[in-house]
Amino acid sequence: MGDRKKPGFGKQLADLHRWNAWLVVALAASGLLLSWGAARGWLGEGRAWVKQLHIYLGLVTAILLVLYAPLARKHLKQLRNRPRQRGNLVFVFALLAGWLLSGIILWQFRHLPPRWSNNALVVHDLLTWGGLPYLVYHSVTRMRWAKKPEKRAVRPDAAEPASPDGTGGLHPAASPQPWMSRKQFIQWSVGIALTAAVAPSFFRWLGRSFVGTGGPGGMAGGADPNRMLPAPEPLPDSVRVIGGGAQGRFRVYTVTPLPTFDSGSWTFTLDGLVDKPGRWNWEQFLKLERVVQVGDFHCVTGWSVYKNTWEGIPLARLLREAGVKPEAKYVKFYSGDGEYTDALSLDQANMDDVLVAVLHDGKPIHRDYGGPVRLIVPKMYAYKSVKWLERIELIDRPHTGYWEARGYDNDAWV
């Protein structure tokens, strides 16, 4: 039997193009699902599986780019007289390479400096906002039905009559040219529809990632819907913002509707396996002795905010004053949204930088960012820093937190 004939250059390109198109569709679907706030709740543990699928699809894309590399030179030479197609090829290749490199950094963020992942996340998002609409536009406008030329066949009864000079030749009647071809109409329609759909979300993302939202460290600049009076009086170091002010932008993630609190009904509780359980209203809580510290804030999704000046009560002091019973092994934290919980071992909870915070950069913590009171655990990823903290309970057995039950690591060390 003779050797099987190797596929030609054109078929190789077509196969790679087709596989790449399906991979981009799958990457887009899984990536958008991961970034969709509402999906964080109902996906549950499935979110960890979607994340792994997204990573594996990205690695397969890398393989396709490696397979394409030997063909690239010949392909570009083939397109030397077609500048638009050549430009499209270069753009798509740069887009895929950028997605791949930034995605690898986000995948391996634990082994790299946090600033790398911060920048990689911005690049990954920017390529997504710019790249996906372009790829959708490119795909729709290059479908066969979009490229099919309009049929302008001339009917016999539309011919010109015989000429007066008797030559008698029938000449087709001149058909008026439309001001916009079918292809142009489709291109403009798709472009306008994509702009209308994408632009509002893009500018919201742009504001969060580059412009901020008006407050320190990108904290919300609008009025705080929490009604907490009086406002906490900041300590001198907190007023001076001893870390120089937060560097970076916070992103708001929540799995429940954002709760609202009022100082008239707000309470903070410390109970469980302690000798002296405590319960404070807002005014009593503000009288507890506070400290000021500077620390970095790292989210497991890849972004960080550096040099935050936090003011609050050291958790170790609260536990010491409550008198922890010998059988207590873990500290459980309850969020005021009624849904979110997490836990630290007793040793972790007694670290000297774990703080029950009430101020950030000298100002009350906005509701959107976990105020009026939130936990701060600087050495761990932020899903351990419970927002809207209103209760601490000492327990004798491990507790699986909200995100740990959905696939996150119990080992949350940065």
From TrEMBL:
One of its GO terms (biological process) is respiratory electron transport chain. Keywords: Membrane, Transmembrane, Transmembrane helix. The chain crosses the membrane at residues 21-43, 49-68, 89-109, 121-140, 185-206. The keyword Transmembrane helix applies. InterPro entries: Di-haem_cyt_TM, OxRdtase_Mopterin-bd_dom, OxRdtase_Mopterin-bd_sf. Pfam families: Oxidored_molyb. Residues 150-176 are annotated as: Disordered. Residues 257-403 form the Oxidoreductase molybdopterin-binding domain. PANTHER family: OXIDOREDUCTASE MOLYBDOPTERIN-BINDING DOMAIN-CONTAINING PROTEIN (PTHR43032:SF4), PROTEIN-METHIONINE-SULFOXIDE REDUCTASE (PTHR43032). This is Molybdopterin-dependent oxidoreductase. The lineage of its organism: Bacteria, Bacillati, Bacillota, Bacilli, Bacillales.
